[in-house]
Amino acid sequence: MSSDLGAPPAVTRRLGYLLKHAQLRLAELAEPLYAPLGITGRQLALLTLFGAGPALSQQEGAARLGIDRTTMVALVDELEDKELVRREVAPGDRRKRLVTLTGEGERVRAAGEEVTRHAEALLLAPLAEEDAERLRAALHRVVRGE
Amino acid sequence: MSSDLGAPPAVTRRLGYLLKHAQLRLAELAEPLYAPLGITGRQLALLTLFGAGPALSQQEGAARLGIDRTTMVALVDELEDKELVRREVAPGDRRKRLVTLTGEGERVRAAGEEVTRHAEALLLAPLAEEDAERLRAALHRVVRGE
DNA sequence: TATTGTTATACTCTATAACTATA
DNA sequence: TATAGTTATAGAGTATAACAATA
What we know:
2 copies of one chain form a homodimer.
Chain A: H1 9-12, H2 15-34, H3 41-51, E1 56-57, H4 58-65, H5 69-81, E2 85-89, E3 97-101, H6 103-123, H7 129-144
Antiparallel strand pairs in A: 1-3, 2-3
The structure holds a DNA duplex.
């Protein structure tokens, strides 16, 4: 599916339309750049999540991304198959699995984040740098709801 | 799935994350308001599309929304079952079906667009009016790619 | 031959319910 | 009893392929 063309104002001014198509365009720009790394944007999001800060359990990670814990199982499986992450039993609670990056996972994460910056720059190219930063800040406040 | 909570900066600053969660929050706010009208946000988008300007064929409508023509068939079926739209053979080309709104469809569209404005206002509540308008303008330019 | 609408089908993404092991 | 992870399964949403009617 391609991004879009000139739909009449009534539709294209809807926030739902704009958010959906901005996402589509970003995916079109970014996915081809992730492909050489052997991962999808979704998988990189997980590497970014589990690569930063203190180790998280699968369920903690799922909550932060707003996805179901059963979905997280499959996503971690994918990354484990690629040997980019490991599951480790949590020291304090043997029910929990902490997800940590392997050396290779760390390398892919770093490369992927560089690619992400590039793809985002392509998407935001129509905007002045100041406006791009305002867009990001506005979305951030809207998502946080404050 | 709920919207999200405090994920670490590395993830929450990603544009893909922000766009997805803004969309999720908007849907959470809007869908309950559409429900009393007996339609989904998706269906209202179609009413808005086919209600504005000159009549469009299914395929023209699909192109403008960036969806597949086979998907459009099912969506128009739904609205036709609810008697909100009609399919009419195009005068000049008997292969094409122009989609037009019924009287009831027009009423639902008007009410739905009012609800949309309300839901968007709720989503954008954290922003000053000026910033909200800037956000919409920035997304518009990004989606148009210029 | 090409295009529009349609149907049948399959694939992806996601969630719900039920199981297990641990707490 | 409750929670973390897991599995099986089902439901959206979407696309691909093939067909009928029309151009």
